[in-house]
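Now for our target.
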Amino acid sequence: MLSQQKSLQCACMTTSLEIWLMDLRDELVTHFKPELLGRPSAVFNFEFDDDPPFYLAVVGNDFFFKAGKASDFTIKLFIRNHQTLRDLLTGKADGMQAFMDNQYRSDGNIVLSQLLLYLFKPDRPTIAYEVRD
C-alpha cells in the first residue's frame, strides 16, 4: 500500500513537472536564439537543491525540456530551484548576481553556461536618439 502511494506521488510530481516544463517552453520559444550556441546541439543537465532534475536539449533550431537527467549531457548546472532557473532564462534575474549569491554554478564549459543565459533572453527595445546641433 505504501509503495503504491509513493508510486502515485512520483507520478503526480512528474506530471506537474512536465506541465511546468511545457509552460516554460511556451514562455521561451518566441525568444529562442539557437545561433548563439555556435554549435548544432547541446544538452544542459540541471540539478537543483530540492527540486527534481531536468534537462534542456537544443538540437538545430529546436529545443525541448525533459524530466530527469540526460546521460549524454554537454554541461551540468547546479541551480537553487526551478524558479531561479526560469528567472535566469527569461532575463528576469541577472546571471552574474545569481552566481555571486551562490544560486547558480556550472560544472564544465563555463562559456556555454554563460551563453545559456542569453539563449532565451528577450530582446530589450532599443531607444534611439537623434542628436542635432
Notes: The CA atoms of residues 22 and 38 lie 25 Å apart.
